[in-house]
Specification:
heterotrimer, A alpha/beta (387), B alpha/beta (250), C alpha/beta (375), A: 387 residues, alpha/beta, 5-stranded mixed β-sheet, B: 250 residues, 6-stranded mixed β-sheet
Chain lengths: 387, 250, 375
């Protein structure tokens, strides 16, 4: 006589059976693997390609110029910016007249010293270079007066200003750090939505879902088995994506060429690696669970896909918004699911990730994952699922 | 024995009252035929019997046990086969038997023994390594039946079991159902084929407009209606109990 | 005669859409909600990061004095008592971008050059450092210095439109991307339902048996798909205009002043959306007809979504005027042209022609594929 299995064992047994069956099903559809393995790699190559393109530069001037009117100075080069020289140039013509001439570009600045007590700086706020030159002009004005002031009060000791840059990584790959999360989230959500839709709504349309529902397998085993199979395949897919990315960086590093993959110089500690793994698991699980939850209420794959578009879109929006952050985000932003994954991914690529923030991300994903599972299990009993 | 008392099902979504009041008694070792016109509520009743749907009101008892209290145990003892239920096309009958057998917590030996017996009977053995999706309609139905019966259920619920099948396959399935009956199993059939009912069923239940209007032996049905054949009895019952819907504007 | 078949197919497909509430929501409501959410989100994110936040730390409780004298002149700086560690903590927590630590011998400036905001704070930091230096020497020196300083007058020569350009560039880019993705998502599901689905539901044979040629049926399906995704695009664009009117009223007024001089902007938007519609229809009809299972078609549709997404992103990275001739990529430059009221129709029409050509090629290939995959 066989020993009666405990309820936990029953759940695990059922889950294992459903999971391995679903995995076998996925493996039998070779073309489906395209979406999970080949597509992310193509995406990665495209991301790298885009990030290697030069960001657009609307300036057509050969050099940037700071014009001075009313000062007796010679023209000289004070440095470079974006590989273009910055020149100090004296102007003889009246400023108003000069600005109307073709010599004054949108990226230039004119400092009018005609009234020594009222210095005027003409610039274009809308132009980044002009705004930057305006700031330099302001400093120039101040410094020139400080020098005169110092001569008048020689007993003052000015405290020198020492700067300390706390950036932790060469930021030449800021572009890829900005793009990578978006380019990972978009295909991941779209693919998981397809698979989750097929595993439940597809089974419903084909009539195979009811056969399993009729078996004595507990609902949690059925749901978890399906979710875990989709999660695993997406996890492998993300692994391939990130793996190719890291490998690309390493190859660039070893060949001594500029890293186009964004991972060079990133050092991740063991706890951070574990947390990243946890994110990957939770994120794939979360998308899979959301997909399964939506598909439970749909009659076929097409309906499931249509219904899942808002989720895909919301994730795309979240990852898209992460592209526009200019500074370090407030702590509360690390609690917004999906958006926080993009933030932490960017932080990691910029070697700026903090353990506290990383834990917050893990926590928010965990809470959402548990909540989604509970809702899914409650929904399973719904009549709409069973008709 | 299955006892159904005042079963009612109203779908929440469209508020359709698919089953209004169904009371039936189904005995072990017998074939019970559920008769009714299209849309009478047969399939919904069978879905409730098979635990797929929860009743809105009323009770279903399997050997005195309430269904809602022990649905997992009851699921272990029943098989439900309809035309809507299919199997995964990518798998072979062997793989499917292995999967479903394990879902029913059967041992490897049990699966192999029952599988070989059923596959041999239904002539699936020579196709056991071919994908289910490549089979003909009849072959698919036979495979589905074999997989359904793999866990040796006490109660077998069949919704139109021989629909769309050739005469040979129909005969094979009917033979097997009779064999199951002789083994003391309880078989519930839903069908429109009155000839099948008269040949095989012991007892019959008639549902019209979601209400059970008769439950008794096959012989009792024409007698109770004062006619000679099952067909006449069925039509009479239907005419007596069917509520004509008012046509607006007429 | 055959045109009647096309019209009939179109009417029947539209009926199917009408009877699919999820599809209607996806087509009409979701574009509006997504774009409105995006407009709000962009406004919020750009709002919180439009200027840097910096802090000056004093080891010797001089924060109050410095605040009293300098707060007016340096609005983005706060003044606190604390040390370097406090400063770093605040930077890491994202509360400030740059910190100045005032020491006895020197003033230390801590910033992170990988953060745009932090770098932007650099110049003001060196100015405030000079002022602090004098202030801490003794108030009288500082006052004297203030009197000695010239009056600086900053004259911004940019027109309101110039100032808007960057904002429009970003907004048009993301709105375009999301509207295109929305249109692509709709195209994906419509194609999966009406083209791949015919084979999956085994209704394809019925179509083959009817007297209308298959290519006419496909044309009917494509035309209604175009109409539907065009509609979803229009909804998205209307939502973007509404979002701008709600969350950036000032910018909206400036744009209206420029672009609203005549109705040309409507024509440009229609031409742009039409080009996107045709290109997207071409991509997804081709994918839809190449497979006999919805799940496979959808999976490969992800590749289509990527193409759309990359095309929309192109103008962010490419300087060349060539992008104006590429469907989808021409969105952002054309929106900028609308805002500047400097509209060029030749690139718009070329992009439209390219899309039309794509549609024709897709039509020819798809008819063949649709027949083949059904075998």
């Amino acid at each position: 006589m066989r020993k009666k299995p405990s309820s936990v064992n029953k759940i695990l047994h059922g889950m294992h059976q459903i999971f391995s069956h679903e995995m076998r099903k996925i493996m039998k559809e070779k073309s489906l693997l395209f979406g999970f393995i080949v597509l992310p790699v193509i995406m990665l190559l495209m991301t790298v390609g885009i990030s290697m393109l030069q960001p657009k530069d609307p300036q057509t001037a050969e050099a940037y110029r700071m014009y001075f009117y009313g000062l007796e100075i010679d023209s000289y080069n004070i440095g470079t910016m974006d590989e273009k020289e910055i020149w100090i140039e004296p102007v003889k013509d009246d400023p108003e007249e000069f600005m109307k001439s073709g010599d004054f570009n949108r990226c230039d600045v004119l400092v009018d010293y005609s009234d020594i007590k009222n210095v005027r700086i003409y610039y274009f706020e809308s132009d980044d270079v002009s705004s930057y030159l305006k700031m330099s002009a302001e400093s120039f004005v101040r410094q020139s007066y400080e020098e005169i002031y110092k001569d008048m009060f020689p007993d003052i000791t000015f405290r020198p200003l020492s700067t300390e840059d706390i950036k932790q990584k060469d930021d030449t790959n800021r572009m890829i750090a900005m793009l990578l999360p978006y380019m990972l989230i978009l295909p991941l959500t779209a693919n998981i939505a397809n698979f989750a839709g097929d595993t439940v709504a597809g089974d419903k349309a084909r009539g195979t879902f009811y056969q399993v529902m009729l078996s004595p397998v507990p609902p949690i085993s059925l749901i978890m088995g399906k979710i875990l199979s989709v999660s695993l395949i997406s996890l492998i897919s993300s692994g391939v994506y990130i793996g190719c990315d890291v490998l690309g960086s390493r190859i660039c590093e070893s060949l001594g060429i500029k890293d186009a993959f964004g991972f060079a110089g990133v050092h991740v500690s063991t706890p951070q690696i574990l947390l990243i793994l946890l994110y990957a698991v939770l994120l794939c699980y979360l998308f899979a669970n959301l997909g399964v939850l939506i598909s439970l209420f749909c009659k076929d794959v097409n309906q499931a896909q249509t219904a899942q578009i808002p989720v895909t879109l919301l994730c795309t929006l979240a990852s898209m918004m992460s592209m526009f952050r200019l500074g370090i985000s407030p702590k509360s932003h690390y609690l917004i699911p999906v958006y926080n994954i993009c933030l932490i991914f960017q932080d990691l690529l910029n070697a700026r990730a903090k353990m506290g923030n990383m834990l917050m991300v893990a926590l928010s994903l965990l809470v959402l994952a548990v909540a989604t599972l509970v809702v899914t299990l409650l929904s399973y009993k719904s009549e709409k699922v069973r008709i | 024995m299955i006892t159904i008392e005042h079963l009612k099902k109203t779908f929440k979504k469209n508020k359709v009252e698919a089953v209004k009041d169904v009371s039936l008694e189904i005995h072990d070792g017998q074939i019970f035929a559920l008769l009714g016109p299209n849309g009478a509520g047969k399939t919904t009743t069978m879905r409730m019997l098979s635990t797929l749907l929860d009743p809105t009101a009323g009770t279903i008892r399997y050997d005195g046990k309430l269904l809602e209290q022990s649905d997992v145990d009851i699921r272990r003892r029943i098989a439900f086969l309809t035309n809507e239920i299919r199997l995964d096309g990518q798998f072979t009958p062997d793989e499917l038997a292995d999967y479903y057998g394990r879902l029913y917590e059967m041992t490897k030996e049990q699966i192999e023994k029952n599988r070989d017996k059923l596959f041999d009977y239904f002539g699936i053995s020579e196709f056991r390594d071919r994908r289910y999706e490549t089979f003909s309609t009849g072959m698919k139905q036979k495979t589905s039946l074999a997989i359904c019966l793999l866990h040796d259920p006490d109660t077998i619920i069949f919704d139109e079991p021989t629909n769309g099948l050739d005469i040979l396959t129909q005969h094979l399935i009917e033979e097997y159902l009779l064999r199951l009956k002789s083994e003391g199993k309880c078989i519930i059939l839903s069908t429109h084929i009155l000839d099948l009912v008269s040949r095989m069923a012991d007892r019959v239940g008639v549902i019209v407009d979601g209400k059970s209007v008769f439950c008794g032996t096959v012989e009792e049905l024409p007698q109770a209606q004062g006619v000679n054949t099952l067909e006449e009895a069925f039509i009479k019952l239907y005419k007596e109990n069917h509520e004509e819907k008012a046509i607006v504007g007429k | 005669m055959h045109n009647r078949h096309v019209l009939h197919v179109m009417a029947s497909e539209w009926k199917k859409t009408r009877k699919t509430p999820v599809q209607l929501v996806m087509m009409l409501l979701v574009p509006v909600l997504s774009v409105l959410f995006l407009s709000w989100g962009m406004d919020y994110i750009l709002g919180i990061s439009s200027h840097y936040k910096a802090a000056v730390f004093f080891a010797d409780d001089k924060a109050a004095l410095a605040e009293e004298v300098l707060a007016g002149e340096y609005p983005y700086f706060s003044f606190r008592n604390g040390d370097k560690e406090d400063a770093k903590d605040l930077i890491y927590e994202g509360k400030i971008d740059t910190a100045l630590i005032v020491g006895e011998e020197e003033i230390r400036l801590i910033y992170d050059s990988s953060l745009l905001n932090s770098s932007a704070a650099l110049k003001d930091s060196s100015d405030i450092a000079a002022d602090l230096s004098m202030l801490l020497e003794g108030k009288e020196y500082y006052d004297g210095m203030q009197l000695f300083y010239p009056k600086e007058e900053l004259i911004d020569m940019s027109t309101p439109m110039d100032k808007l350009q960057k904002h429009i560039d970003q907004l048009a880019g993301v709105v375009g991307m999301i509207v295109f993705l929305m249109m692509a998502s709709n195209a994906m599901t419509i194609s999966a339902r009406s083209i791949t689905g015919e084979k999956e539901r085994q209704t394809f044979d019925t179509l083959v048996l009817c007297p209308a040629p298959l290519r006419k049926i496909l044309l009917g399906k494509m035309l209604i798909m175009m109409a539907e995704i065009f509609l979803s695009g229009v909804m998205g664009v209307l939502a973007a205009i509404a979002g701008m009117a709600i969350w950036s009223r000032k910018n909206f007024a400036t744009i209206c002043e420029q672009a609203g001089q005549d109705g040309l902007w409507i024509l440009v938007l229609i031409l742009l959306l039409l080009a996107v519609t045709m290109a997207v229809t071409a991509i997804f009809t081709f994918i839809g007809s190449a497979f006999s299972q919805t799940k496979k078609a959808s999976l490969f549709s992800s590749a289509g979504m990527v193409i759309v997404s990359v095309a929309a992103m192109l103008p962010t990275f490419l300087t060349t005027d060539l992008v104006k001739y590429i469907p989808m990529a021409n969105w952002t430059p054309s929106i900028l042209d609308i805002c500047r009221h400097d509209i060029h129709f030749v690139p718009l029409l070329v992009a439209l022609l390219i899309s039309a050509a794509l549609l024709c090629i897709s039509m020819i290939l798809s008819t063949g594929l649709w027949e083949r995959t059904s075998e």
